[in-house]
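Dear support,

I submitted the protein below through the web form. The confirmation email said the job was done, but the results page showed an empty box. After a refresh the structure appeared. I'm attaching both so you can tell me whether what I see now is the final result or a partial one.
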Amino acid sequence: MTDNDKIIVLIERLGRQISSEEHAAGLQPVQWAVLRYLHRANRFSRTAAAVTAYLGHTKGTVSQTLRTLETKGLIKKRVDGKDRRVNRLELTAAGKRLLREDPLTDAAWSLQDLSPQQHATMAAGLEQLLLARLDSQDRRPFGQCRDCLYFGRQHPDGQPHYCKLLETPLAEADSAAICFEQQPQSA
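What the results page shows now:
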């Protein structure tokens, strides 16, 4: 077995183990993925289209998943105040509570015995792998606002930051959120 084969087998096995834990918690893995995405995404990126792009699933699969989560009371849709054609998605209080029981938390605890150097090496390697896969499929990276080409510091109106693309102020919390429009600074 080559090193490449070993890495892919290990990633697949970890994914299946986590997927099994997600099922045991009463949700489908894709439903957990949507909840996590909505928790991490900025306010501009909480739409069905952005969820679809992030997950790489079909519109139908995402639409059904969103309906199920809404029926379970874990998310809610609201019409955008500026563009009535767009529905914004938000986690409900129940959705936020459920995320505190996220099965990925246990997986994260499994990493605590790694050294800081091992953490950094693993994170950098997995990020390179993901970015290469996204690039080969012509998909968006969904990086953090603060790492974006359009990110500006110190908005003139007093807000800490602003988005040059959307021409809007950004709060400090927005800078750490992932964004559908994100373009890496090095691009």
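Response: this is the final, complete result; the empty box was a page-load delay. The chain has eight helices and five strands.
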